[in-house]
């Protein structure tokens, strides 16, 4: 796990949100909105963003992740990144995002600190969410 200096929140319920395809200027705003919408339930204390299916991410996508994290932290919630694809990992490493995010090598490792979880798949590429 990266981001060892991060503040931790106790997590009762986590949402695993799988992002697919490309995250760029064309859909970064949608991504942020979809991530925040996935945490609408008051029981959701942790958002785990599964990046395993990301084929490309630019700075707009990075900005969307930071904005979502800022909003959730302000609400007393927690956001972590998990299982970054090779493309996502290159960007995370280049920008040293492990200083700002907890980054787990696999989704299951991110789920260890939660009591319950549900899965969502990001609408960025038209994949439906499910509980």
């Amino acid at each position: 796990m990266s981001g060892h200096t991060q503040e931790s929140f106790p997590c009762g319920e986590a949402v695993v949100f799988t992002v697919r395809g490309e995250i760029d200027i064309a859909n970064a705003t949608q991504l942020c909105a979809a991530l925040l919408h996935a945490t609408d339930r008051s029981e959701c204390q942790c958002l785990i963003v599964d990046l395993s299916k990301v084929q490309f991410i630019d700075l707009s996508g990075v900005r969307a992740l930071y904005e979502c994290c800022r909003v959730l932290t302000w609400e007393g919630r927690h956001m972590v990144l998990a299982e970054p694809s090779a493309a996502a990992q290159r960007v995370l490493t280049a920008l040293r995002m492990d200083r700002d995010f907890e980054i787990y090598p696999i989704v299951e490792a991110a789920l260890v600190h939660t009591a319950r979880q549900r899965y969502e798949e990001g609408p960025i590429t038209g994949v439906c969410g499910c509980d």
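Helices lie at 28-38, 59-74, 86-94, 107-110. The chain has one domain: 11-123.
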